[in-house]
Amino acid sequence: MRFHFVGPDFFHWRASLLSTLRGGILFWITCSFIGQVQAQALSREKIDGWLKTLGASDKFDAAKGIDWGVMPGPFYTPELGLGIGTAVVGMYRPDPSDTVSQNSTLTLSGYASSTGAFGVSVKNYAFFAEDRWRVFLEGSLANTPTYYWGQGFAAADDDGNKEKYTAQVLTLRPTLYRQLVDNVYLGIGWSLAAQNADRLDQNDLPKIESTPQGPSVFSSGVSIDLSWDDRDFVPNPRKGQYANLRYTYYAPGLGSDTRFDEFHLHYSRYQALSEKSVLAWEADGVLTQGDVPWSMLPLLGSDERMRGYYQGRYRDKNVVSTQLEYRRQLTWRHGIVAWVGAGTMGPSVDELNNGRWLPTAGVGYRFEFKPRVNIRLDYGIGKGSSGFYFQVGEAF
């Protein structure tokens, strides 16, 4: 489930630093005491009983097939208005007798709001044949009022440069992995992204209409992955490393409007500091070349990386970022996290070294809905902006 609101440039960074830190500290303290407050109001047994009716058991039985759980909830943001969202989380084992593969997970989520915004998404991690085969799938469909600033830092810095529109987006990325040797996997996949910029504000500068592709863009390509992965549980690792190199080739012969290349480099490491605490670190980069449409430019800011920035404001042909996150399990199902990070972007790889980096920091609350599957609420602080994020699963 993905609900977030980021207010761009409503404070100057230096002037707002103290107030955002105060807000973050208050958010941290509130999260830390949620467990104690709930324990006083209701016993854990009563809450567990209520959660069990929603499928949120703290135990998993592979013999039952897919163990489903449902978590509904209302929300309100100035962007989306009043709405309701639901996350459906399923844990399963394709072969219950397979004790080598980790548990597979399937997450379905969606929301609808009074402004006409809606979104649905699916994420599946499936493990087969003693982890020799893996099938990963991500997809989404969304209709969201948003803004487009253009490409690069100069465009993003000018708030008067933005154009309001409604993003109608369909994405799908399935990948099949085969184990080569222990912890090493080769994957082949397909990437589809269709975006239409609807309801363009005629009072704003015509940015999207001026792009070579225009308001509607269709991108389709094949991908190949090579990865090292010894994480103990993909949705929420406590130990292990994950290194992945993905190359995606988009071309008209594959249904794409334009021809371009995308290289995605990723490395993350997870270190258990104690039975209840984990230190997680990642470095991530997306590099593109060719005729990259405006809708496929890598973004600096999302609910996974560079939290705290308006998604879609910072975009360019090349984006890199890093983050360090401390995760702490509290009593019962509760947990908290804190992170720091930074990112930059540029029209070419050489121009990534121009010295401008955007910072990010934040805190978050975790609720263990299924065994090691968390519902997360994060508050991210960026330079001149901040945002709340409500999502299923860890950011990375």
Automatic annotation (TrEMBL):
InterPro entries: Bac_surfAg_D15 (IPR000184). One of its GO terms (cellular component) is outer membrane. It is found in: Membrane. Residues 130-396 form the Bacterial surface antigen (D15) domain. The keyword NADP does not apply. Keywords: Membrane. The keyword Membrane applies. This is BamA/TamA family outer membrane protein. It comes from Raoultella terrigena.
